[in-house]
Amino acid sequence: MLHLISAADLSHSDAVLILDTAEELAQVGDRSVKKLPTLRGRTVVNLFFEDSTRTRISFEAAAKRLSADVLNFAVKGSSVSKGESLKDTALTLEAMGADGVVIRHNASGAPYRLAEWVRGSVINAGDGTHEHPTQALLDAFTMRRRLGRLADLRVTIVGDVLHSRVARSNVALLHTLGAQVTLVAPPTLLPVAVETWPCEVAYDLDSALPKSDVVMMLRVQRERMQAAYFPSAREYSRRYGLDAERMARLPDDAIVMHPGPMNRGMEIAAEVADSPRSTIVEQVANGVSVRMAVLYLLLGGSEPALGGGER
Amino acid sequence: MTHTVTTETGAAAGGGRPRRLHIAGAALPGPGGALRTANIAVEDGRIAEVSDAGPAAGAVRVDGSGLIALPGLVDLHTHLREPGREDAETVASGTRAAARGGFTAVHAMANTDPVADTAGVVEQVWRLGQEAGHCDVWPVGAVTQGIAGSRLAELGAMADSKARVRVFSDDGHCVSDALLMRRALEYVKAFDGVIAQHAQEPRLTEGAQMNEGAVSARLGLAGWPAVAEEAIIARDCLLAAHVGSRLHVCHVSTAGSVEILRWAKSRGTQVTAEVTPHHLLLTDDLVQHYDPAYKVNPPLRTAEDVHALRAGLADGTIDCVATDHAPHPVEAKESEWSYAAMGMVGLETALSVVHLTMVETGLLDWAGVAERMSAAPARIGRLATQGRPLEPGEPANLTLYDPAPRGRVDPRSFASKSRNTPYLGIELPGRVVATLLRGRPTVLDGKLV
User: Fold this and answer.
1) Could you give the 3-state DSSP secondary structure of residue B46?
2) Where along the chain is carbamoyl phosphate bound (chain A) (predicted)?
3) For residue A307, is it within any domain?
4) What is the ipTM of this complex?
5) For residue B218, which residues of chain A lie inside 8 Å, CB to CB?
6) Residue from B106, B147, B146 nearest B126 by CA
7) pLDDT tens, residue by residue, A288-304
8) How many Å lie between the alpha carbon of B109 and the closest alpha carbon of chain A?
């Protein structure tokens, strides 16, 4: 595998290898010296066309723990009419000798275009409303850690599926890993032809919750209201928000996830976000381990992840 | 097979303007799919004779054996980009591409810069076409000033100008205001004009990037629903019927649109429609790697739509093929999908794509191709001297097409200034060997004269 652009490109064994490697690498985070020499001399560029401090620092921490050199390249206002084109940016990175490019872009599919112009590995850190594969990997990693398995796990994903790259990557990856996914959203926030996806679809959250081992709440942007996707924030919250009363409908060991950043009081109540069921903080920590695994597997070559004899 | 062009004395024909030309043994499409082999004598810009007779003295002889003779193709929908975007195409380069594709007339769309919304601009485009001389250029006039969709352009002035405009279109934009559309349809009746509508409901397509369906859902690209096209076509058919006007629908792309047109025609509405070659062949799953070569307006649709469009073109629900030749410079396509320009070049591949999708499938015979690519568009555009049958006394606008060779599309060979073809490396049948404009070869042996 040269690139990681879509979670749909991962086979079952690819995905399990990434999760297992992440599990090994997670030990590094528990050490006093949180650093491995694995990617010494390699250059990873964080190419961010969209502000996302949390994703960028997660990738940056992952690359640095593997001793890679990290260059942060932030491009503001990336409309084609102003400034440098993606192709020229790619040629610049190529000239700098980037071994891996982590790209966050507001246009769906931008990583595919980038991959045509650079020789290094392209890692999709979120492209438009298309995919965010490392988010799906860290979500699967978190589920497996908390619940011990992924096969036949019942995962309910709630919210703005239409505009969610997290949902697309999760549906693809969880299906590959044998979980059963149900999407719950108002019909306006589900894509046309969603019935072709390998998952169930429902409009009613209350009836889906008792059958969920995992409930993943998606961020809903308030500007969707202006575009008439739903009448008001209050109505959305009432029908699709997860509050304490709704959370009580979940089975005892079910977990609540959110990819962040949260709109507390909109899709998720504060008491839910801060409850013991919530994995939101763990997801952030797991993100670093999973991204280390991805960088190691794409860029690391033949060396063992944890170095010789160290297990 | 090579097709030699010689004078009777055996010398190779140069450029020049031979007054007499003799096409030996070409196949003329007739009724019932029959092909009749005959010699065509061309004299003083007209077809003098279609018979078994030999060449007159001094005539340039064109070997027509194995070639199909078609009336010169007519395109109702061409973007020549001049004035304003001469980096993408000029009237000269676009009409060279047209001649190479077998066309003897093109309608130049109005979305230039400045917009072709006054007599001055349409006359300028018309004159540039005359000067280039590769094929007739009939400017399309904008329906509204600046294609802004709010006030009618001076349609009468454009109709009365030297450019003799009969087709009016805001192509690229929909005349979405129902009242304005009604007025435009009514107004052009005074000079037998037609409104060519770009059917795209603007609110339903805000930010739209590709056909809305399973592929757009997976790719996370904002969808362009079929209903956005169909709703406007239905509305406009009803308006045209109400005011008794002529409506032409540009680049029909959905199965539903074909159904609506079939219904409107069954009621006697004066509506005509075109389909592009790319919508007869390509589908939205090609977008899967976000290559903007496949980005076009209207978007590529599904295989089901392609089948319905072919059937509609075969049964006459769709009257003609129009290229929507839309040249763009390299950088306009070398970007993220969402930022890339919409459009494809098409003049030099149109006949081959129609051959592949309609003739090789048995849906249309060559007489049908002549109707859909020459006679029908000429009628819709009210061109008296184009799209005529290949008969004595008619203007000698014709195309000789060799259906035998197959070759991969190589954009470097295009006469167009732009290379944004969706057919890169695809194998297509056939080759235009010669194009005659009023008896004068614009293309011979597949090369521009």
Assistant:
1) strand
2) 54-55, 104, 132, 135, 260-261
3) no
4) 0.93
5) 8, 168, 197
6) B106
7) 999 999 999 999 855 56
8) 24
